[in-house]
């Protein structure tokens, strides 16, 4: 047994309550999703279901129309992830490695966007999308979410590119490469951890986003998965049995994605991606 192990016990003792606080609501949600409506109505969060009601998930899927909702969410996530990378990678390279007048102020202007909540600019954003004819369309919500996520993505990519030695780009320029070739052939292959972190963060935030799809998407056929949970609530009653099971269906792909990409996500945030 390692001599250092007893020193870790106080830290473990401090982390266990935090872990319980974080994990507790998820366990309660999963447990409630397997209960009957009568068991949920008793209001005892610690009571386990007497019989596992797996039928709740099938009912939530059918009543909520989750097949089309998941399809819309996948299209939304794919569009946001691709456009975010297309915008943030070249912009991050330019702000990190190309000297031009006003470079620092341009970067500060983008970073200032991180301090502004989307709720504060939703009215002008809606007017812009309305004038472009993009309300109630997947293109409209994709562009809105990309605009909302670009400041962080730009900060992430610029910070990583600043850590790449300038000698690499100088050697490429000596060989006759232009900035586009340096970006695609030198910097992007080296920035796989940062790109992975950016894509994972963008995908998770887009999948869970409720506010922007609520404002932009109107027709039920265009709505994403978080909006589908509202279908289980009416003016006078809410079917909590379907709400809980539908919520589990919603966050299950997120958990699977994080488990599969946890290593790359950690690498992207530790190998200089948030430094600079």
Automatic annotation (TrEMBL):
All residue ranges annotated as the ABC transmembrane type-1 domain in the record: 70-261
Subcellular location: Cell membrane
GO cellular component: plasma membrane
PROSITE patterns (UniProt xref): ABC_TM1 (PS50928)
Organism: Devosia insulae DS-56
Name of the protein: ABC transporter permease
Membrane topology note: Multi-pass membrane protein
Family statement: Belongs to the binding-protein-dependent transport system permease family.
Transmembrane segments: 12-30, 74-95, 107-126, 138-161, 182-204, 242-260
Keywords of this entry: Cell membrane, Membrane, Transmembrane, Transmembrane helix, Transport
Main location: membrane
Gene Ontology biological process: transmembrane transport
Gene3D superfamilies: MetI-like (1.10.3720.10)
């Amino acid at each position: 047994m390692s001599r250092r192990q007893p020193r870790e016990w106080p830290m473990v003792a401090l982390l266990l309550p935090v872990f319980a606080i974080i994990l507790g609501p998820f366990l309660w949600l999963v447990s409630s999703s397997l209960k009957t409506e009568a068991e949920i109505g008793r209001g005892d969060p610690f009571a386990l279901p007497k019989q596992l009601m797996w039928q709740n998930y099938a009912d939530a899927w059918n009543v909520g129309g989750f097949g089309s909702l998941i399809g819309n969410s996948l299209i939304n996530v794919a569009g946001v992830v691709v456009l975010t990378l297309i915008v943030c990678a070249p912009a991050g390279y330019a702000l990190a490695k190309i000297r031009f007048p006003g470079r620092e102020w341009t970067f500060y202007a983008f970073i200032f966007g991180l301090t502004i909540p989307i709720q504060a600019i939703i009215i002008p954003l809606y007017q812009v999308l309305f004038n472009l004819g993009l309300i109630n369309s997947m293109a409209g919500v994709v562009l809105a979410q990309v605009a909302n996520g670009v400041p962080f993505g730009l900060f992430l990519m610029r910070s990583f590119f600043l850590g790449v030695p300038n000698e690499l780009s100088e050697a490429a320029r000596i060989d006759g490469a232009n900035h586009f070739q340096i970006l695609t052939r030198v910097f992007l292959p080296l920035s796989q951890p940062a790109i992975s972190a950016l894509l994972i963060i963008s995908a998770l935030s887009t999948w869970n986003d409720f506010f922007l799809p609520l404002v932009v998407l109107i027709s039920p056929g265009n709505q994403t998965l978080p909006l589908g949970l509202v279908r289980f609530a009416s003016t006078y009653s809410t079917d909590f049995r379907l709400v809980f099971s539908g919520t589990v269906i919603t966050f299950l792909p997120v958990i699977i994605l994080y488990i599969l990409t946890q290593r790359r996500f950690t690498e992207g945030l530790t190998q200089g991606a948030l430094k600079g």
